[in-house]
Amino acid sequence: MSSLVRFVGRLAVRVRSLTRPQTVILTILSVCCLGVWSAAATGHQGIALSLLASLLLGVLLGILHLSRWISGVYRANQNANRELRLIMEQLQRRVVATVEKERVTAGDRHQDLTRTVTRGLRQSGHGTDLLLRAQSREIEAMFQLFRQCTPRAPMPSSGDFALNPTDLLDLLYLVRLRRPQLVVELGSGTSTVWLGYALAEHGGKLISIDHDPGYARQTRALIAAHELDDVVQVREAPLREVTANGKPYQWYDVEQLADLSDIDLLLIDGPPAATGPDARYPALSVLAGRLAGTATVILDDTNRQQEREAVQRWISEVPGLTEEQRLLGRHTVLSYSRATTPVTV
Ligand SMILES: C[S@@+](CC[C@H](N)C(=O)[O-])C[C@H]1O[C@@H](n2cnc3c(N)ncnc32)[C@H](O)[C@@H]1O
Asked: Which residues 6+ apart lie within 8 Å of 300 measured at CB?
């Protein structure tokens, strides 16, 4: 009894969940069944048979419709499956292509990296080689320097801010060869001491200019320790605005250089590059007119772009100035021979 109640309950739930067309069909079928049953019960065999035939026809038509609907659903399902397979295949191909591309790119990147590392190793080896060769050049120069002079006090270090031994060696060679009476040096330090010893040999004088009171004091102390005060004078000339070729620069106070004339050798090793762009360019605008009829101009650090440019500008602006063959080091030597036209840079 309880299972019948459960069955009826489930049936009621299903009936309630039917769509409107399903409800209509079910109602028609139920009415037909009722009609067959009542016609058979009341002895109307003909009506009962007709209703039964109509019922059968309806059921057949329903089955036909259902089978067409199922085959439609089946076809749609197959199409969906085919499309899904196509999409999966495309996706798979794309994944394979992407992985392959990444593999090739990674291979290329690995090759690039290997090449860069190999090149880096080769260059650093080459760099070490160059450094060792440069060092041995400086050591050779240092030996030659100390054979030329026996200092009376410890010599200050060369290199870095000071001239390198190779530059000092060439400078002293030119001093011994050309015997300048007046040497002016822009930027004092180690070179001041070496120049002092070289000039003491043949009676020349050195005026060394420094913009920095501390470094000027230090160089003065060195000159005193080496007993070169009779040969060397260290002058302080703070940086001021100087106009050269129509442009302002920070350069030595020209007042401190006002008395200088007939300079036989001008060594330009200051102001330091950190004081401003083209820091050394004004040197010849101010001092070209104070050079002796025949003079030598030396500019240090011409391994640097700004100094190389300054040399080219001076040669084009100062008549009688030509570049000499460089023997050693990173400086440039220029010969000056007074031209008839006055210098106006
Ligand atoms: C290139 S240095 C001159 C060096 C000098 N001609 C020599 O060979 O020793 C130019 C100026 O830099 C300053 N100077 C010197 N040594 C320095 C250092 N170690 N650090 C910063 N400035 C320095 C001084 O004022 C000097 O006049």
From this structure: 163, 167, 267, 268, 269, 307, 330, 331
Per-residue pLDDT of 150-192, as tens digits, reads 999 999 999 999 999 999 999 999 999 999 999 999 999 999 9
Distance from Cα 115 to the centre of ligand 1, integer Å: 42
Pocket test for ligand 1, best of 212, 215, 256, 275 (most atoms within 8 A of CB): 215
Cis amide linkage into residue 271, ω under 30° from 0: yes
What is the position in ligand 1's atom list of the atom closest to the CA of 301?
A: 1
Largest CA distance in the chain: 162
Question: Would the CB of 190 count as within 6 Å of ligand 1?
Answer: yes
Mutate to test the pocket of ligand 1, among 157, 160, 161, 209 (most ligand atoms within 8 A of CB): 161
**Residue 190 alpha carbon, nearest atom of ligand 1:** 9
Q: Domains plus CATH for the chain?
A: 149-337 (3.40.50.150)
pLDDT in tens, 197-221: 999 998 999 999 999 999 999 999 9
Whether 162 lines ligand 1, by a CB cut-off of 6 Å, is yes
What would the DSSP string read from start to end of 71-135?
Answer: HHHHHHHHHHHHHHHHHHHHHHHHHHHHHHHHHHHHHHHHHHHHHHHHHHHHHHHHHHHHHHHHH
| Residue 239 backbone dihedrals phi, psi, to 5 degrees | -75, 135
Q: How far apart are CA 168 and CA 163, in angstroms?
A: 6
φ/ψ region of 285 (left if φ > 0, alpha if ψ in -120 to 50, else beta) reads alpha
Q: Provide the pairing of β-strand 263-268 with 247-252.
A: unpaired
263, 290 contact by CB (below 8 A) = yes
Ligand 1 pocket residue status of 307, Cβ below 6 Å:
no
Q: Which residue has the tokens 């397979």?
A: 85
User: 51 with 44: CB under 8 angstroms?
Assistant: no
Rounded to whole angstroms, the Cα distance separating 74 from 71 reads 5
Question: Which atom belonging to ligand 1 lies closest to the Cα atom of 300?
Answer: 1
